[in-house]
């Protein structure tokens, strides 16, 4: 394999950068028809693979000494650091400064953690670790977009070492080695996209193949021929196909698309083709090299950095999102803000990074970076600096706590005497997913106060449906952890003679229909009756009904009572943030409500099956939670002025305490 030619400046690559960043911005600011604009990040990965490989292969020739190669790699990493870190640190600090005036203490702590992860180059790993049921919704994480810069920086650290080893191989074996790495990464990405989408999305290993498409393009740049500069007709047709693919990508894909593999392969290959052809058919070349595309390409890094905090802060101030007009105004504001960042920080620091040694300005930059890291650590370990807020606002915010502390004993209130008789309900088992977990602490406190035998069996994201296999996609393997929340739990309950009542609680509608509801809809879920059946959402109902009927029969035969808690109302917005906005005067009083008919429509089919199950099995007793949260024609997540939900579908301790009397009365 021959080494790539010197990576001289190419105006067409600026055009590709412009396509990439515009796709991301249009998608994030909610422009219709651009739901697949997130693929712009993947284009950046391909471009980075091309540029970095082009630079590195000039000075990692096998005939050079190891010391020369190591010195070059260290200089390269230092330059990349000065290229990326100053602007990202500046935006992180500016975001924290804006957050001082806008964010609640809880969100301000979270911002400190995000900023620390961002400026120390592991935000992708941080956000992957935070991807759980109760993490802050993505629309309210001001530095979430820095995850891609973490992936890039980790590639910069890894690839020079790998590439140096590959360059020791003879001839074509270098290409074969890169192709092998690309194939292995793509296969791993494909598997993880099905098995664990968060890992596939945020981690550098499953993303490596995108960079390597760019790396292969660096080795196989097609040199223009004088007699036919733009190549053959087939090559020119390839230019048009690749360009049209990139133009269509924002409209072709969307939130339901499996990403990154296999879908990202299409735009990445298109980008790789265009990168490998420095001279293209004339019109394609002119579209990529026009002056406007050049300006946007030059500002692309700064544009990417400044846009997302604007989206998040506008979502916070204008819950649940600003008007389309305001979003377009913020989109336009990204241009001057990014220009300022480029002129004041990005360009000067990039020039400074290329200077040899450690002049005073460099030392000052390093000191500023260290100071920023210290400030982020202090913020992350603080209590959110509540002193920023007026006392009245802080008092108001306590009514909207996501997980309020409830120190009063469960049996200490009025009207609880009948519920708190020692051993009145016999032994109780609580079984379910995260919806059962939301009840566990309250029920455990009640059991301790009354001396009741109590056991909880919780499987997050896993229904209490023995014999049902749960998958994220129609062709992925079943979730192994969910198998442990099925038959083994049933056997444990049947073997425990002290348990007389089993309370079942789960996000029933999700498993029954296969679809979520709420501000973070997430992906579908599939149920099958065995490991190898090809799944479909239309098959969920049959598996769900058969499994729950068999479960009810088994528990009835063992003489155990079944309390089935029907679905709680699922809100189409984040109740906590809505109520915070209401308490702070950002939204009108009474905004945080949902039409009762809308909640009932979501639950209808599931509840009708539950009614038929209770009619045919006398051991099944249904608990309808809607009366606790719904009055007349509306449902509210607020009870007696305090938030009773922790997100759109999970109750918090206050909500659990409100449901407890219904559960215990049914268990007696």
From TrEMBL:
The keyword Transmembrane applies. It comes from Roseibium litorale. GO terms for molecular function: acyltransferase activity. Keywords: Acyltransferase, Membrane, Transferase, Transmembrane, Transmembrane helix. Residues 419-664 form the SGNH domain. Residues 12-342 form the Acyltransferase domain. The lineage of its organism: Bacteria, Pseudomonadati, Pseudomonadota, Alphaproteobacteria, Hyphomicrobiales. The chain crosses the membrane at residues 12-31, 37-57, 84-103, 153-169, 176-195, 259-276, 288-306, 326-345, 366-385. This is Acyltransferase. It comes from the Bacteria. Pfam families: Acyl_transf_3 (PF01757), SGNH (PF19040).
């Amino acid at each position: 394999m021959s080494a790539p030619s010197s990576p001289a400046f190419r105006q067409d690559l600026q055009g590709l950068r412009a396509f990439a960043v515009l796709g991301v911005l249009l998608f994030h600011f909610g422009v219709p028809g651009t739901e697949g604009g997130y693929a712009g990040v993947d284009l950046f990965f391909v471009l980075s693979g091309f540029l970095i490989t082009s630079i590195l292969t000039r000075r990692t020739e096998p005939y050079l000494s190891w010391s020369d190669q190591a010195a070059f790699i260290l200089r390269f990493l230092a330059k990349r650091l000065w290229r990326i870190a100053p602007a990202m640190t500046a935006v992180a600090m500016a975001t924290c400064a804006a957050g001082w005036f806008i964010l609640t203490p809880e969100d301000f702590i979270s911002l400190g953690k995000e900023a620390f992860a961002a400026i120390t180059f592991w935000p992708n790993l941080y956000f992957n670790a935070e991807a759980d049921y109760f993490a802050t919704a993505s629309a309210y994480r001001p530095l979430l977009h820095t995850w891609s810069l973490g992936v890039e920086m980790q590639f910069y650290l890894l690839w020079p070492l790998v590439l140096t080893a590959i360059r020791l191989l003879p001839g074509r074996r270098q290409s074969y080695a890169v192709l092998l790495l690309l194939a292995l990464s793509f296969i791993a990405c494909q598997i993880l996209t099905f098995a664990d989408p968060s890992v596939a999305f945020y981690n550098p290993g499953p993303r490596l193949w995108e960079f390597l498409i760019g790396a292969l393009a660096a080795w196989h740049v097609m040199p223009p021929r004088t007699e036919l500069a733009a190549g053959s007709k087939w090559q020119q047709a390839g230019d048009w196909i690749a360009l049209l693919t990139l133009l269509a990508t924002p409209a072709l894909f969307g939130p339901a698309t499996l990403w990154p593999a296999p879908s990202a392969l299409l735009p990445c290959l298109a980008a790789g083709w265009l990168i490998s052809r420095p001279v293209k058919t004339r019109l394609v070349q002119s579209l990529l090299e026009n002056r406007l595309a050049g300006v946007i390409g030059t500002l692309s890094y700064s544009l990417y950095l400044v846009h997302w905090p604007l989206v998040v802060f506008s979502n916070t101030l204008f819950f649940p999102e600003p008007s389309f007009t305001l979003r377009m105004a913020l989109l336009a504001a990204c241009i001057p803000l990014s220009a300022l960042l480029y002129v004041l920080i990005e360009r000067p620091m990039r020039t400074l990074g290329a200077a040899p040694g450690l002049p005073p300005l460099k030392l000052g930059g390093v000191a500023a970076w260290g100071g920023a890291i210290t400030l982020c650590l202090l913020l992350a370990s603080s209590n959110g600096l509540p002193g920023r807020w007026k006392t009245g606002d802080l008092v108001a915010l306590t009514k909207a706590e996501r997980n309020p502390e409830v120190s009063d004993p469960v049996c200490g209130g009025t009207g609880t005497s009948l519920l708190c008789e020692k051993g009145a309900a016999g032994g109780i088992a609580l079984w379910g997913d995260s919806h059962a977990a939301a009840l566990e602490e309250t029920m455990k406190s009640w059991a301790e106060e009354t001396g009741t035998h109590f056991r909880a069996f919780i499987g997050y994201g896993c229904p209490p449906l023995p014999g049902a296999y749960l998958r994220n996609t129609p062709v992925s393997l079943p979730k192994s952890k969910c198998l442990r929340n099925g038959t083994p739990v049933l056997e444990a309950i049947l073997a425990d003679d002290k348990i007389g009542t089993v309370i079942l609680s789960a996000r029933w509608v999700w498993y029954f229909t296969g679809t979520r509801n709420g501000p973070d809809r997430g992906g579908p879920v599939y149920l099958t009756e065995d490991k190898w059946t090809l799944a479909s959402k239309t098959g969920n109902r049959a598996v769900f009904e058969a499994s729950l009927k068999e479960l009810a029969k088994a528990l009835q035969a063992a003489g155990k009572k079944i309390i089935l808690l029907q679905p709680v109302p699922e809100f189409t917005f984040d109740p906590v943030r809505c109520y915070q906005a209401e308490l702070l005067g950002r939204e009108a009083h009474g905004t945080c409500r949902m039409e009762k008919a809308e909640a009932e429509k979501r639950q209808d089919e599931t509840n009708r099956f539950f009614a038929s199950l209770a009619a045919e099995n006398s051991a099944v007793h249904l608990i309808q939670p809607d009366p606790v949260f719904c009055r007349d024609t509306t449902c509210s997540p607020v009870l007696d002025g305090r938030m009773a939900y922790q997100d759109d579908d999970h109750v918090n301790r206050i909500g659990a305490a409100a449901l407890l009397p219904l559960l215990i009365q049914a268990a007696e």
